[in-house]
TrEMBL record:
This is Inactive hydroxysteroid dehydrogenase-like protein 1. It holds the Pfam family adh_short. One of its GO terms (molecular function) is oxidoreductase activity. Keywords: Membrane, Mitochondrion, NADP, Oxidoreductase, Transmembrane, Transmembrane helix. The chain crosses the membrane at residues 28-51. It comes from the Eukaryota. CDD domains: 17beta-HSD1_like_SDR_c. PROSITE patterns: ADH_SHORT. It comes from Acropora cervicornis. The keyword Transmembrane applies. It is found in: Mitochondrion. Belongs to the short-chain dehydrogenases/reductases (SDR) family. 17-beta-HSD 3 subfamily. GO terms for cellular component: mitochondrion.
Amino acid sequence: MAEPKPARDCSDLSDFTFSWLLSYDDKLGLANVLAIIGLFYVAKVSVGLFFRVLTGLRIYIFSQLTRRTDFAVKYGGRWAVITGASEGIGKAFACELARHGMNVVLMSRSSQKLEKVAETIEKEHKVGTLVISVDFSRQDVYPQICNALDGLEIGILVNNVGVMYEYPQYFLDVPEKKLFDLVNVNMLSAIMSGAIINLSSSAGELPTPQMAVYAATKEFIDNFSRALAYEYSFHGVEIQSLRPFYVATAMAYGTKPSIAVPSAETYVKHALQTLGLSRRNTGYWSHSVQGWFQGFCPEWLWMWGASLLNDQIRYKVLRSRKH
Ligand SMILES: NC(=O)c1ccc[n+]([C@@H]2O[C@H](COP(=O)([O-])OP(=O)(O)OC[C@H]3O[C@@H](n4cnc5c(N)ncnc54)[C@H](OP(=O)(O)O)[C@@H]3O)[C@@H](O)[C@H]2O)c1
């Protein structure tokens, strides 16, 4: 007669789980149980990847081939307002929206630069322009903006204005004025029918050392946009959060355009095609690939890599200033 098995001690949870697996081993085999768990995991990752690729193709590739949206009709206004429109991504948004037949309101501090952009846009795209010179680091500018925009049928607002540190810095080294500018310009300017595009950044996806306040303000924009998008979707307002990685503008410390770092024009051409298709994306296909890899990156590795890169940028900027 077979000896009865000794009773296992299941006094704590891990002992219990272990003994449960062992008892299953008798019937199914431990290897089979682990294979089933592995199969579920592979299926989950594969299905996730499949839908990610499908969404990427839909918003970045097919939309470029098939979509020609009349933004003025879709968003109920012929005017688009772009903050930070004298340079970089904002200027590219202004030109691209004008190419789609929208009149554009251009805002930044420098009226001279804005006038130049407005002149080019009027000449090339035969649309109306309005220039508003405004400093978003001041909190008393909003009544002036409301007065200037009074009576315009605004379909799209691009909350693009943003400032960064002059070079990557540790928190306590950032001048106090810059800290206030970061909060006022990056965050307050976005709290104000149609569609709203908010420029967030992938710098906020994981904590980024030496850009701590910048990345935090960008994460605020993303979180804020997502909640607002839900609240106002019932009123027909579309709110989109764009989360680019590096785009080759002044803010990217003179990085040359490449597949990984598109020019502002290339970036905006792609990003605008995602409006109405996706409430939150990077705006550019290769940035989404970077985001996918970032998703696999443990936080410590990201912070170590970002810190190393930011050390190099700071060294490069400070050295170029000495010469
Ligand atoms: N470039 C990137 O790699 C990158 C990556 C992720 C996210 N983003 C985000 O994309 C947005 C645009 O970035 P960008 O690279 O195009 O920047 P940029 O080239 O430095 O341009 C910034 C624009 O903002 C205006 N501006 C700056 N401070 C202002 C203030 N106090 N009041 C009014 N206007 C002000 C500037 O014009 P004036 O000097 O004439 O005022 C300029 O038109 C930002 O929100 C940024 O955080 C950029």
